[in-house]
Amino acid sequence: MRLLYSLVLTVISPLVIVKLWWRGSRAPAYRQRWGERFGFVPTIEGQPIWVHAVSVGEAQAAAPMIKQLLVRYPEVPLLVTTTTPTGSERVQALFGDKVHHVYMPYDLPSAVKRFLTRVSPRMVVVMETELWPNLFHQCHVRDIPVIVANARLSERSAKGYGRFPGLVEPTLANISVIAAQDHVDADRFQVIGARISQLNVTGSIKFDISLPASLREQGDMLRRESFGPDRSVLVAASTHEGEDELVLDAFAKIKAAVPGALLVLVPRHPERFDSVATLCADHGFHVIRRSDNAACGADTEVFVGDTMGEMMLFFAASDVAFMGGSLVPVGGHNLLEPAALELPVVFGPHMFNFQAISKMFVDVGAASQVANVDELEQVVVRWMQHAEQRGEAGGKGLALVEGNRGALQRLMALIDQHLPGN
Questions:
Q1: Partner of 305 for a Cys bridge, out of 38, 94, 266, 323, CB 3.0 to 4.6 A?
Q2: Could you say which architecture CATH assigns to the domain 215-403?
């Protein structure tokens, strides 16, 4: 099955190049560094620990672990790979020259072999759910431990993997440890072929979020100097195509009930910044973009966050957070960051990528899940108009974050245990 998989991947690889070129029309970075995607990377001496984080969200989630690795193993080089240019930018912004960084190779046999020969990692730590048959096979052949960290497996993904047991089960067999976020994820991995001996329930390291000491102060400054200190602020974080329109429809109703309300709209992908700003104007809203470096006027209704790496700052300057990717079937995004800043969180019906965590927040009253635009408007208006309810929900969210810390240390213990020579 792996040979058939490799053949199919080889046959469609020209289409992958076409897709990269097409995506590059909107995000030019996709037309750069193609060699890295086929394993043509610089040689790294010293057998690094290799951490793979697909994009921005995974890179942000991996950051506390990477910081721990830098402190715990200062003599060991650290390689961090991503798949997307935005993930690449985030890694470079977070760590600069403290880590090596390249794109992860495609799972073609020749690319994987070339990459591993040039990098020669002593361990591979893959964030969340990334199962690569050829990579994991070659790691097994070369006796390189593989840890799938912060592992999650949605019901939909489990069904998808379950259709190819002849490929998935051998791939899972090449993993040293699966550090699952919860027992539901662990059970799903077992159903698709993982051994009980491979599974550890460590919790989500996303709960071990670390906030910069000055973040709240910076948020207060942004609110005071750019948003306006007396305005109610809704941040719509990591929105996707087809979702911005729904958020704008809800905000039109919110603004009617809460005069002076401001929407901070932050698209997930930078190639959509321009089109989203145009969309807001087309809907009749007065818009300012973060890149304008201008303060909102009394007539400003939408502030478009068109910069990278400032999401936490926008959270710190807001009253209520809506998590994108949830009104459209993307699967949602990480709600722990606004919760750690005591913001009440609202999201739509599609949170299957964060099913367990989102349920925890809803169950304790720290978040609200809505089915449509009308319900979104009702929840946001209630929280904006009732500071006590808003504060109570935000406090419960912070308490939930604080009460679930510790996953990072459990994961680090597994890394210590399986790191060769340790």
A1: 266
A2: 3-Layer(aba) Sandwich (3.40)
